[in-house]
Amino acid sequence: MAVPMMLMCMIDQLETMDPALTDKYAGLAERCVEQLLLHIQRDGTVILEQVSPDGQELPGCLGRLQNPGHAIECSWFLLQYAVKHNCPDLKKTAINNFLLQPFESGWDDKHGGLFYFLDVDGYSPTQLEWNMKLWWPHNEALIAFLVAYKETKDEQMLEKFAKVFDYSFSHFVDPDHGEWYGYLSQQGEVTQRFKGGPFKGCFHVPRCLHMCTQILRELVTT
Predict the structure, then answer these.
(1) Cβ distance 77 to 12 under 8 Å?
(2) Three-state secondary structure along the chain?
(3) Taking a C-beta distance cutoff of 8 angstroms, is the pair 155, 143 a contact?
């Protein structure tokens, strides 16, 4: 799922900077949407991280893998595309299949926060960090629920935004020295005290804070 969603995001950024590129990349963007929709599996009840090129579920643990953060990030990419191109069905799919379902199944009801990986059949994922809480899925959830609220005015989107906000700012943020820690245990304790490294760069946090600030300002002034 990573390649088409990142490509879709890049195309959106290029078109934002230069609208003349819209027609040039229209076909490629449509293809990205088609590929992403293939990840809706099991009669629309789950989003799987990896599927075959023709949209079939793969065997084994990789085929059963779910990454709630990726699906949630993908939701607001698809939602923005749907709004831009007036695709009401895709708008519903983005919210119901890529945002709400992965959030509900991925949220840890006991300790709070989003699991990093899940196995769709309930087996233990093979990824050793599967039950950790990482910064970036929470960043993407904050963006996704605000984008969804902006486009639907559905109060449950604000409620879920507040739920993620409360967890994130009480667990990831360093109140004394600023910035976000990246890695928490399932119980919400910081496991790595560095705030930047090979995988946590200057991307998800600033994008999240910038976009959320922009959307909230729009909401309070309209």
Answers:
(1) yes
(2) CHHHHHHHHHHHHHHHHCHHHHHHHHHHHHHHHHHHHCCEECCCCEECCCECCCCCECCHHHHCEECHHHHHHHHHHHHHHHHHCCCHHHHHHHHHHHHHHHHHHHECCCCCCECCCEECCCCCCCCCCCCCEEHHHHHHHHHHHHHHHHHHCCHHHHHHHHHHHHHHHHHCECCCCCCECCEECCCCCEEECCCCCCCCCCCHHHHHHHHHHHHHHHHHHC
(3) no
pLDDT band, residue 222 (cuts 50/70/90): confident
Chain segment 154-180, per-residue pLDDT in tens: 999 999 999 999 999 999 999 999 999
The two structure tokens encoding residue 12: 């959106």
Burial group, residue 123, by CB count within 10 angstroms (0-12, 13-18, 19+):
exposed
